[in-house]
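Case study 2.
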Amino acid sequence: MEISVGTFIISVLTSAIGSLLFGLASAVPISRIIVKRRLHRLFGVGTRDTVVFVFVHKKLTSPKLTLPEINPGLGVEDVMAISHLTGLLVRSGWQGRITLRHSTNVGDGDKREHLIVLGGEAVNTFTTQVLEILESKGVPTSRFRRSNHNIREWHIEDESHHIHISASYGQVGGLYQDDHAILMKLVNPWKGEKRIFILAGIRGIGTWGAADCLRKKVRDFLKHPEFDPKGGFSALIRVRYRDFDIERTELISLVPYPAKYAS
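Prediction:
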């Protein structure tokens, strides 16, 4: 499934405004303050900072739309993920600007902003670039690997070299689909006061599920004993998709990334 960038922008703005109005209308002041502080602590994004979303164009199937450079498409899963994240940013007090960049068109200026990267190494080359920088600094990190049994299938190899598969490959047409995803918060290696978030499922539903997990279980991240607001983390998430929605998510593990790895 795909959606035009124009439709996506309307969707994100609607979600962001809706989240803001919901917060203003339904929460008591002290609750809003607590939620705002927690989210600001998690994201570390300044009120007027620019946030760059790095995504991948989906292949266009219509014979009339054959040039992705002119008619870019966004996967529905990515739209849902960006909508969830934008809503959280607004609730944290953020009022900055959104920039959209294809994974192959991230400029030097973009890299010095806050970055939210969508999709694993199977689809997003910028994800690979960031993870390779981590490895070059000696940071144990999760990576996406091709299956030895089927070159069309991928899995996650975590920091301890454990393998996490996507059962969804064998659940086509079933009532539900299961996937794994990583959600990473990193100190930006190009500009230390900025942050990089990577949300990447083995499949698209995992990417969407990672954002849904953060939206619904932000307290689990903030209260995790390994959480360091000055540094970052790598979280492994289990996702179940059913009936066109994320039915449930589970935060399986969280590995801290100290701030020193930005140097």
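Confidence is low (pLDDT under 50) at residues 24-28, 60-70.
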